[in-house]
Amino acid sequence: SDWGLGLAALAVALDLHELAARLLGATEAVSETVYRLLPIERKDYNRLVDAASTRLGTAHFEAVLMQGRAQGFEQVTEEAVSILEAMLHDQDQATPAPQNSEATKVAGGD
User: Fold this and answer.
1) pTM above 0.85, yes or no
2) Which helix (DSSP H) or strand (DSSP E) does residue 104 occupy?
3) Cβ-contact 24, 46 below 8 angstroms
């Protein structure tokens, strides 16, 4: 579904291709039983498959894709959200807060 594709796109953008492959596998399984991908979603799905399989290699990609199918959509998406939230938290901790020049002047007594 849209959720799976959106998370997979984010995973690809963040160079988390194994996570993307698991998400794509879970999304594929759901699309066969519960929710059919629309043609525009299928185009996105195929683009993400190409990106992840190119990066991982076909055999490794297929193995991870099957793992995602077996895990199920809910489990894979929960895991993905947890991983992505942790990455964002780590990134926030590593990024210094922007300096406000007015606040700095007041605090410095200028």
Assistant:
1) no
2) helix 101-108
3) no
Q: What is the tens place of the pLDDT at every residue in 11-45?
A: 999 999 999 999 999 999 988 888 788 888 999 99
Nearest CA to 8 out of 54, 57, 49, 63 is that of 49
Residue 84 class from Cβ within 10 Å (0-12 exposed, 13-18 middle, 19+ buried)?
middle
- Crossing angle of helices 58-71 and 17-33, rounded to 10°: 50
Counting beta carbons within 10 angstroms of the beta carbon of residue 104, is it exposed (0 to 12), middle (13 to 18) or buried (19 or more)?
A: exposed
Residue 100 has pLDDT above 90, yes or no: no
> Which residue would you say has higher pLDDT here, 48 or 1?
48
Contacts of residues 48-53 at CB distance under 8 Å and 24 or more positions apart, as own/partner, are 48/5, 48/8, 48/9, 48/12, 48/20, 48/24, 49/24, 51/12, 51/17, 51/20, 52/8, 52/12, 52/17, 52/20, 52/21, 52/24, 53/21
